[in-house]
Design a protein that fits this description.
six-stranded antiparallel beta sheet; mainly beta; disordered N terminus; rod-shaped
Length: 379
């Protein structure tokens, strides 16, 4: 026995910030954008700065590690002491990843070059908004003696909530000495984040507005007068397919061209807004009453539209009775007589059918004698 399972494949992308090589530098990602199903990736920001310092500068350009971009870098004035995530506490750099609705952010790697002066952070702590920056998803040390640049690589397992933006903060703490307010003592460069977005996205939605739609009336051989409904849809990843039934025709161009099978509407940006769909009874429909469903579907969403029609015969009704073989009924009161049968057929009969009315003192049965009635029966 063979079992086959569909396993979602996550597409990982690496987003990088090298902060530019031309003045005045840039805090926006320098490569790796976009990442599938992540709608936005923010600029890098600094927070809890000790005084005011420019975010970007070419001071102490990155060096000594492979791939150092050696130009603009991001700097912050960090306070000394243990990690403090409260306002006015430990300095941090942050960025935000915003997923498409229904998707969740995943992060597997965060790498960056860093250096600290003698009063700068001796450790870094990476935390996220998922738990209000309460726990580390990675941490490491920073050498302050001699202020060398070093590349920090951090393998991470992080998965956010569906639809929730995730802000990542790299805190610097555990420094010592007496830092000068308004003077950068901690820098990062060549930030690289490997991220993905997992999920299936929001469910598609279809709405059919049939306000004013009434029963279709016509005569067999003649198409009915058309009526129009509108369809709207959102979160589509495929075309919207409209499927009719043989007795009804549908049109997307106001009735210039009709289809008796299926037609499709392509969404724009995943949406369809108030697209008109014209419906009529086909001239080929046989006479009779109809209560049918027209299907509107896309992906996992389906909306059914009930349409009703009354198609009248286009000819003179003819009723034929074959009573050959009938003989006079005889019986003794109060017993009913023996049963006898005759056949009734007709052409061009309207939706009301053929009505049989028994005469006085007679009963009729339309179910082979299982039940008899003394009032009119419709066939």
């Amino acid at each position: 026995m063979l079992f086959i399972a569909l396993i979602p494949v996550l597409v990982w992308g690496q987003v990088a910030w090298n902060f530019g090589t031309a003045a005045p530098g840039t805090a926006s990602p320098s490569s790796g954008v976009p990442v599938a199903n992540i709608t936005s990736i923010s600029d890098l920001l600094q927070g809890n700065n000790n005084g005011t310092t420019p975010l970007l500068s070419t001071t102490s350009a990155s060096s000594t590690y492979a791939g150092a971009s050696a130009s603009y870098n991001a700097g912050a004035a960090a306070r000394t002491g243990a990690l403090n995530t409260a306002a006015g506490g430990s300095a941090y750099f942050e960025f935000t990843l915003t997923p498409t609705a229904g998707y969740s952010v995943g992060i597997s790697q965060i790498n960056f070059g860093t250096r600290s002066t003698a009063t700068g952070p001796a450790a870094y702590y990476i935390r996220t908004s998922a738990d209000n920056y309460a726990t580390d998803i990675a941490t490491g040390t920073i050498v302050t003696a001699g202020s060398p640049w070093a590349l920090k690589t951090n393998a991470i397992t992080f998965n956010g909530a569906a639809g929730a933006p995730v802000t990542v903060r790299i805190y610097g703490a555990a420094g010592a000495g007496s830092p000068v307010t308004g003077t950068a003592n901690w820098r990062i460069d060549d930030l690289a984040v490997t991220a993905t977005a997992a999920g299936s996205g929001p469910a598609p939605s279809i709405t059919v507005d049939a306000t004013g739609l009434s029963i279709f009336n016509t005569t067999a051989g003649t198409a009915s007068a058309p009526q129009t409904v509108t369809v709207s849809a959102s979160n589509l990843t495929t075309d919207l397919t409209i499927t009719t039934i043989p007795e009804f025709e549908i049109s997307l161009d106001g009735g210039t061209n009709y289809s008796t099978s299926t037609i499709t509407i392509s969404p724009s940006g995943g949406s369809i807004t108030n697209a008109p769909v014209t419906i009529r009874v086909a001239a080929t429909a046989s006479f009779g009453p109809y209560a049918k469903d027209i299907s509107f579907s896309a992906g996992t969403a389906t909306q059914l539209l009930r349409v009703d029609a009354d198609v009248q015969s286009n000819g003179v009704p003819v009723v034929t009775i074959d009573s050959s073989g009938l003989v006079p009924f005889t019986t003794t009161s109060p017993s009913p007589s023996a049963t006898q049968s005759f056949t009734v057929s007709g052409t061009n009969i309207s939706n009301g059918g053929i009505s049989l009315s028994p005469g006085d003192n007679f009963e009729i049965s339309a179910d082979g004698g299982a039940s008899f009635v003394s009032y009119p029966q419709s066939l």
